[in-house]
Amino acid sequence: MESQNTEQPASRSLPVATHPELGKPDFVWPTVLMLTITPLIALIGVPWYQLAVGFEWSHWLTFAVVAALNGISITAGYHRLWAHNAYKAKTPLKIVLALFGAAAFQNSILTWASQHRRHHRHVDVIDEDPYSAKKGLWYSHIGWMLRHYPTNTDDFSNVADLKRDKVVMWQHKHYYSVALVMNILPPLIMGMLTGDYLAHFLACGFLRLVYSHHTTFFINSLAHYWGRQPYTEDNTARDNDLLALFTYGEGYHNYHHLFQGDYRNGVRWWQFDPTKWLIKTCDWLGLAYDLRKTPDFKICEAMVNRQLEAARQRLSSDRASDRVRTFVELETQHLAKLLSEWRAARARWFEHNKTRFRDASSDLHAAVEQERAQLTQQLKDLEHSVKQQYQRVRSFNLAVA
Ligand SMILES: [Zn+2]
Ligand SMILES: [Zn+2]
């Protein structure tokens, strides 16, 4: 899900350069150097320091805090706030997210969000998706940003809304200096406080940057290869609990690709999604507002459709019995009926919610209130029905498997 094109702004509009012999685009040298030198320093320097001097718990604590600030600024800021407009944020929160997001060295918000929106729009399409999983694990993880591929060429036509955001444009204009300062400042301050400059630059400087890079890159690569697909098989995105642990909740990528406007990725209460908890906390504190959530009915409808699709695939085999055929037909009709009732009830419920009365004691007001209560109950009943249907179709699939 990330973007890593570190070419200078002045060269952004140049045509894509192609290597004459290999027929491949030229390397993006600043990116290549950063993504090779920083891991080398971390992989050699950190074990060496551990053996020669030894890290202390305070070094690892600083590493963890700065890594979390970077990671969650990418997930809550770059990704859910700016790329998807899943909620709105007040300026102080935006500034913090823009500063610590820049420290992850994954390009400016504007470039990142533009590429990510293209990823969602053209997911898996080789010539359109900047980090198409169909081009392989290496390409989707890191390969895509090492060369001037045409899909990386900046095209800000899909981020007109972000161009009106002053924090986004300020960060875009000063991206390289902000990113550099935000990388140097934490280890420098800790070094000044403790005298352990080298330890902090190795742990919270280099190792933290490498960790931030690759945990984000995993979303583009592993989260499109490894895991389950409970909501849709229309693209390669997967849900993966283990990845969620390292990516501040972004491992629920199958859900995210279907419901990208939801501020949650781990939609179940028990799913590990610290980004959604942070956004919800910011909502309580008044720093975030207008959080967008997909209705439970729609989530469950997607899950039923996915199970029905699995049952339909059995129909293509010659041995599919009439029982399977009839079951799929009836359940498909039932889901369509539930959906149309839900849409009608929800539209009416919204209408009633908009209705304002001058006289709260009038008969009309009482009647509307009564109907609204009935509609609320009807929506709950429909949600219950679709959940029951999910259990029914899933059990059927398991039984005939
Ligand atoms: Zn994706
Ligand atoms: Zn996304």
What can you tell me about this protein's structure?
With 401 residues, this protein is an all-alpha fold. The protein folds into 2 domains: 9-289, no CATH class; 296-400. Helix content is 63%, strand content 1%. It contains 15 helices and 2 strands. It has helices spanning 29-52, 57-83, 91-102, 109-121, 137-141, 160-163, 166-173, 175-194, 197-220, 241-246, 253-258, 274-285, 296-315, 322-354, 363-400; strands at residues 88-89, 288-289. Strands 1-2 form a two-stranded antiparallel ribbon. The relative contact order is 0.10. It binds zinc ion (2 copies). One zinc ion binds at residues 1, 79, 83-84, 116, 120, 256, 260.
Topology:
Blueprint: H1 29-52, H2 57-83, E1 88-89, H3 91-102, H4 109-121, H5 137-141, H6 160-163, H7 166-173, H8 175-194, H9 197-220, H10 241-246, H11 253-258, H12 274-285, E2 288-289, H13 296-315, H14 322-354, H15 363-400
Antiparallel strand pairs: 1-2
Helix pairs in contact: 1-9, 2-3, 2-4, 2-9, 3-8, 8-9, 13-14, 13-15, 14-15
Residues 1, 119, 224, 237, 253, 257 line the site of one zinc ion.
* Number of strand segments: 2
Order of helices and strands: HHEHHHHHHHHHHEHHH
**Low-confidence residue ranges:** 1-21
Portion of residues within helices:
55-70%
Number of helices: 15
Number of domains: 2
Strand content: under 5%
Mean pLDDT: 91
Tell me, what's the shape?
A: globular
Measured between the Cα atoms of the first and last residue, the distance is 35 Å
Give a quick rundown of the structure.
The chain has helices at 29-52, 57-83, 91-102, 109-121, 137-141, 160-163, 166-173, 175-194, 197-220, 241-246, 253-258, 274-285, 296-315, 322-354, 363-400, and strands at 88-89, 288-289. With 401 residues, the chain is mainly alpha-helical. The two termini are 35 Å apart.
